[in-house]
Amino acid sequence: MFFVDTIELEGLGNRSYLAGGEDAAVAVDPPRDIDQVLAAAARRGVRISHVVETHIHNDYVSGGLELARITGARYLVPAGANVPFARVAVADGDTVEIDTGSRVTLVAIATPGHTPHHTSYALREAGRPVVVFTGGSLLIGTVGRPDLVEPRLTEALARAQHASAHRLAVGLPDDTAVLPTHGFGSFCSSAQSEEEETTIGKEKSANAALTVDVDTFVADLLAGLEDVPAYYAYMGPANAAGPAPVDLTPPALADPAEIATRLAAGEWVVDLRNRVAFAEGHVAGSFNFEADGKIATYLAWMIPWGKPVTLLAESAQQLADAQRELVRVGIDRPAAAATGGPAVWLPAGEEPVSFPRSTFAGLADRGIDDVVVLDVRRDSERANGWIEGSVHIPIHELRGRLAEVPKGEVWVHCAGGMRAAIAASLLDAAGRNVVAVDDGFDAATNAGLPLTTG
Q1: Per the CB 3.0–4.6 Å rule, which of 11, 203, 301, 420 could disulfide with 414?
Q2: pLDDT at residue 190, rounded to an integer
Q3: From the CB of residue 19, how many other CB atoms can be counted at a distance below 10 Å?
Q4: pLDDT confidence tier of residue 244, bands split at 50, 70 and 90
Q5: Model pLDDT for residues 178-206, shown as the tens digit of each residue
Q6: What's the CA gap between 174 and 225, in Å, rounded?
Q7: What is the C-alpha radius of gyration for the chain, rounded to an integer number of angstroms?
């Protein structure tokens, strides 16, 4: 009997899988912190005989090369991927035996679109497809982005996505489970779905790649693409070169003097505590990226690549969890760290700084004519409605556009509060008088604020 275990990477909005039979298994698109995969195999009592990549990833650093080295597994990478390291080059139709006793095999299916070399893998039990690992090809209700490789290839890859989706739909039974890597919040997905699972049959009736003609599909897909996270530019090259093993040992601990020195040198000091605690009191000049938020995505997106980062955490566990998230996107070693709170991060006699939090009702009471309303949502979010007279700078652009924020008291908001907290910390560090709106945007209507749509 076959099994499939899902390894959730919630911070990045991705999934990895371990699948196989009684004795052996294959790891699909493993994360860089491979201890999770090894633990899953140990729980199942199976050896990892194969490690496969659906493509050279553009949104995170893979652990495939290291996992194969440690386990002695065969490392399968699409033949079209240009890599210098030793691997088994996989071509369309190649079949590998995963577990003899359970009659579990894996068949490669060329599905270009997300990348030119993208390959999906159908898991078969006794010759019948039961699962297909689709990576960044066919996702739940959508497909992977076609614009992450080379701008001149985007339209051609979008058309390839349409063709690849149809190839999977025609070649696999309707009850085949579709298990993608992207699509659970990942910016590698061209859209997001509320569904957690799907099959080929469900996608035939729900996925635009399978329900509309290619020209309409491509036009709609390209029109809906949003900005690419800046750190993606470093992920593909890192994976193509062969990622180094990770080091998750705790970083060196910094005392207040070192924290102050690093701030003075222009390094990033990142406070991982929740946004309420940060607003109530923090080290002046530090930035707030909540450990429970999408820290890997937003910190990697916004920090100048290669800039030293010091992490301030309320506990050793919070620090360790953040470290794990960050190595997945190539931020390998914090320059330093500290745990506790502002009382132990600041020199004796120095007080933490703070800024107020409020709601959209609070903004309505204050009056939008007397303040600067800053909207840090993405373009697609703002298109559905915005507060009249508000200034729009998406969160990932704010660091380079702080000078564009008009003078005055700044009330900053997003869709729910997390990104507003990041923005508020940047503005606070720049010496601005800021209020963080910690509220869902739906509340803006209930508060009676004047909204515009377009």
Answers
A1: 420
A2: 64
A3: 27
A4: very high
A5: 999 998 877 877 666 667 899 999 999 99
A6: 29
A7: 24
Q: Please tell me the distance from the alpha carbon of residue 114 to that of residue 136, in angstroms, as a whole number.
A: 6
Does 3-241 carry CATH code 3.60.15.10?
yes
How many residues are present in the chain? 454
The answer, as to whether pTM is greater than 0.90, is yes
**End-to-end CA gap in the chain:** 54
CATH 3.60.15.10 location in the chain: 3-241
Among all chains, which residue has been given the structure tokens 């990622």? 243
- At residue 393, the 3 state secondary structure works out as coil
- Looking only at the bridges linking them, the beta strands covering 14-20 and 24-28 are antiparallel
Contact 132, 168 (CB under 8 A): yes
Burial of 385 (0-12, 13-18, 19+ CB in 10 A): middle
Residue 197 to residue 412: CA distance in whole angstroms: 36
Average pLDDT of the chain? 95
Under CATH, what is the fold of the domain 256-345? Oxidized Rhodanese; domain 1 (3.40.250)
Rounded Cα distance between 430 and 15, Å, is 37
Q: Measure the CA–CA gap between 291 and 140, rounded to whole angstroms.
A: 27
161 SS3 class: helix
The segment(s) of the chain belonging to CATH 3.40.250.10 are 256-345, 357-452
Strands (E), 111-212: 119-125, 128-135, 177-180
- Select 357-452's CATH number: 3.20.20.140, 3.40.250.10, 3.30.70.250, 3.90.79.10: 3.40.250.10
* The predicted structure's pLDDT at residue 193: 63
Q: Give the helix ranges, DSSP H, for 177-226.
A: 200-206, 208-211, 214-223
Cβ atoms of 251 and 336 within 8 Å: the answer is: yes
Cα 415 from chain centre: 18
In tens, the pLDDT along 56-107 reads 999 999 999 999 999 999 999 999 999 999 999 999 999 999 998 999 999 9
Q: How many helices (H) and strands (E) does the chain have?
A: 17, 22
pLDDT at site 186: 78
